[in-house]
Hints:
The complex is a heterotrimer.
Chain A: H1 3-24, H2 30-56, E1 62-68, E2 71-76, H3 79-102, H4 109-128, H5 132-150, H6 156-187, H7 206-223, H8 232-235, H9 241-250, H10 252-268, H11 270-275, H12 279-299, H13 303-323, H14 327-358, H15 369-372, H16 374-388, H17 394-408, H18 412-438, H19 458-476, H20 484-496
Antiparallel strand pairs in A: 1-2
Chain B: H1 3-24, H2 28-50, H3 60-91, H4 96-105
Helix pairs in contact in B: 1-2, 2-3
Chain C: H1 4-24, H2 29-54, E1 57-60, E2 71-74, H3 76-105, H4 110-136, H5 140-158, H6 164-195, H7 200-206, H8 211-228, H9 237-243, H10 246-271, H11 282-301, H12 305-329, H13 334-364, H14 380-393, H15 400-414, H16 418-442, H17 458-473, H18 479-487, H19 492-495
Antiparallel strand pairs in C: 1-2
Helix pairs in contact in C: 1-2, 1-4, 2-3, 2-4, 3-4, 3-10, 3-13, 3-17, 3-18, 4-5, 4-10, 5-6, 5-10, 6-8, 6-9, 7-10, 8-10, 9-10, 9-12, 10-12, 10-13, 11-12, 11-16, 12-13, 12-16, 13-14, 13-15, 13-17, 14-16, 14-17, 15-16
Amino acid sequence: MNWGGLLLVMILLSSLVPGLIIFALPERSNRPRTFLNLGGAVLKLLLILLMIIGIYQGRHFEVRWQLLPGIELALNSDPLAALFSTLSTVLWLLTTLYAVGYLEQSPNRRQFFGYFSICVTVTVGIALAGNLITFLLFYELLTLTTYPLVIHRGTKEALAAGRVYLVYTMSGGAVLLVAVAWLQVLAGPVEFGRAPFLASVAAEHEGQLIVLFFMFIAGMGVKAALVPLHGWLPRAMVAPAPVSALLHAVAVVKAGVFGIIRIVHDVYGIQYAAGLNLLLPLSILASLSIVYGSLCALREDDLKKRLAYSTVSQLAYIVLGVSVAGPMAAIGGLVHLVHQGLMKITLFFCAGNLAETLGVHRISEMNGIARRMPLTMAAFSIGALGMIGFPPMAGFISKWYLGMGALAAGKMWVVAILAVSTLLNAAYLLPILIGAWFKPQDCTWPEQGVTARLETRWMLLVPPLVTAFLVVAVGLLANAQISPLAWVKLIVGMEYGP
Amino acid sequence: MNTIFLYNFSGLALFAIGLHGLIRSSHLLRKILAANLMSSGIFLVMIVGAYGTDNGMIDPVPHAMVLTGIVVSVSTTAVALVLVCLVQETTNRVLLLQKKKRARGERTDA
Amino acid sequence: MPDTAFWAVCLVVVPLFFAIICFVRSSLVAVLGPMAAWLNAFAALGMTFSFVHSGPIRYAIGGWQAPLGINFSIDGLSVLLIAMTAVTGLAVSMYAIGYFSLRIGSAREISRHEHQRAYFWPLWLLLWAALNGLFLSADLFNIYVTLEITGLSAVVLTALSGKAAARLAAMRYLLVSLLGSCSYLFGVALLYRTYGTLDMTVLSRLISPAPLMWVSLALLTTGLLLKTALFPLHFWLPPAHANALAPVSAILSGLVVKASLYLMLRLWGDVFAPVLPLSAYVLPGALGCGAVLWGAGQALLQKRLKMLVAYSTVAQLGYMFIALPLIRLDAGSSAWEAVIFLIMSHACAKSAMFMAAGSIFLKAGHDRIDDLDGIKEVLPVTSFAFVVAGVSLMGFPPSGGFIGKWLLLGVSLSSGQWWWGIMLVIGSLLAACYVYRVACHLLVFKAPFYSRREFIPPVMEWSALLLAVLAMILGLFAGYPLGLLEAGGPFPAQACLEVMP
């Protein structure tokens, strides 16, 4: 009996089944629904811990299901998959708690939480995918399951944002489909988690492989919000804050970047990709995204939109790290996957708190707000400082490794980009902090919110505090055995090793 | 010119005339008649084929096919005529072309 | 254990028998109709099992041998299509019971609705018998007869609603069908004159280039394209499918068009394949591309839900015609498998869509797409069914449509004619456009929703949902239909193995 495979399937089912049950429950049954949500999240976390323990003991889990000769669904548990799925699950647990608190008075919660659960199932499916076609299957399903979340409010802007989202992601999905089919025709079914795949394929198709690489980057770049394919992300901010948090830190954009990592590391392989001169254009594209995203963030007054452009910029760090050939840079990029997730979700949770409790959406209204909501702004500050790269926050670790890696590879211009973007990060984040903490309140906030013991509902307060704590902890304990950094070093060691 | 060729030609001509009538007539009854003409032409071509065999034996299969075809044709004509009556009853006209304009304005029905 | 031939005869006789009884005793229709549907499904199941057990057969009905007797030829393709018809037909029958019971419940117009119900069942069962006969037939003339019966039943079903638009659409459908049948029959006549046989298997071996053969092929193809409504001969389909009663629309779009499509595939892919050059296949492929673009474009412009779904049928049929050149290019059998997946998943998904659209129409009293906001509160199951069916049409994994699209993409890329594959992908994107045009209204919350009718029977909602979910998960169980095809399919390599009559 393939217990390992069963474990993987159970990990997926632990959020799928609650999701389906939530669809069947009537709209008013809030307590059962909350119980199912949180219960499913905790169960998933436990199962993933089991999987991680198994991986540390050197075991490898795998499950396969053949649809047709040539189309085989496979889940497997290599360290990169475990990293992404752990990140998704932990953040999902926190986001679920947050969402329950955030949407307390909203209608239509049944559909929201149903799709929410299925969305996480699909994200973990992307993480655990063992070959390119399983990845494609879950990737396309992610588009479908996030759409109802984006249009949840039902307003005209929400529907328009949903339409833009679909146009971008479906086109990207179509390009990805053609690329995967083409690659399969050239080289047979593409497996992950083994040695880089294409290096063993004949060299006569090199021209096609180069075109394919860029098609892959384009297809995944839509979800990864690489410039110029990032247009959907700021517009998708009309969704409720839990959805923004999920989209930006956990699910959609991380799936896109994860896909790029898989392509560069597991399909093409660093040496082969470098040999085909594919990495330089990717670095340039990433650098462009970094700078452009930061510049656009400077101009935005809406808090969530500024954070959206910040995501565009920060994700490109990961791509930059992956595309600079060298282990240190890869470590920096991959660990930023985790760190950026933690920091960004903190920022979004806080933004949601401000919007929900006080009705504040714009940065210009945020002066003096720290007096009113100190805990929230403390978490926000930690996240923002981490983004800028202050030690000992998590962001500092990733930027350090990126910089070191760029130096080791001899690419001085990358270091320059890093420096410029750090300055830009400070430019668009520090004014918010200064205004919130040090300036007096200069406009009345639309709602005064609850003035109870806590500045807002506890379910809205606990998640950002937890993630802020994690941001600091991950930075301080970076050299510990169980930190994400150690994990990433293991992954990169396997990629660059003998 | 032998008779086989004459029969073949007549069959083909009937088919062509029927085709022309089916497409070009505007009156529904004329269209149905034209369709009948087309099938008659085809039946003629089929029957003639039964006599073409070398050893003088008449092939029974085309006869079977034509008999079946005639039955089918009769039923189809019957249905068509009833439908013309129904159409006339609801729209009070029997000209398909004019009806095209009215059909665009009609509501769809579940 | 009754053998395949027994089940095959059952599949034709049982619906026919029940059709006659339903016609004679219209009071018992509500019981006899579903009974016939379940018996048919059972017979299809029996035939599938015995086919898996004993393989493809040829059966001479009554012991009378061809050429005067009628032969049944049962291979993998027939079995799959009959199974598809049985499952879809069963779902539509269950839906129809709910549908007609509802309409009779309303106080006004009782006699008209009872009249519709009384005539629906005999006609539908007759159509079903004819479809089964068509998929089982071995020779082209018997196919003509069953095609005619199918067409006639479909025409009368279209006119059943009694509204002027429906009757006009039915008249146009009938005339087009007549034109198509005459053309087809003439082609059959010429084919018989040239080769002396009409059996499809024998013909595929005897076929050789001859002037009359080309004429006959042209006539056959024209007739079938008229009946399948391939662009640009599609003008009759949208009004007919949109104006019919809801269960009838599901039958027409899901099953009836598949009959002539199946024939096109048999003729171009099997019978005439040895003599047709590759360039000839470009014609149906190009027309298919045109259908995809035109159908999707028109669907986006529609304001009514049922017209949108009808134009979607036009587009999806074009999709399947794009597969024709790929069948010819393909050295193996992937393209055939792909087409079959597309057909099966389209039948399920499109019927589910029309059933859902019918429920929505009854609930809301109209089918204007832009005014459907918030209907998911009152019809949650139906809205979800529509979205799932739409997703299957878009070819999203893991639906059967995705498997078909993937296989065809693989064939087109590996053979170097990548433009067909690109066309397929573009077709999916366009399908996504019009599906989401409707879905965005079906996923949005807006209270309260004005319902014209309070109660929609659950059987109507759930039959649509189950069929849609079936289309969606068809891909996950792809191995089973393919196993049937391996046992005996219309692939060139295997045609040689079939037994001579």
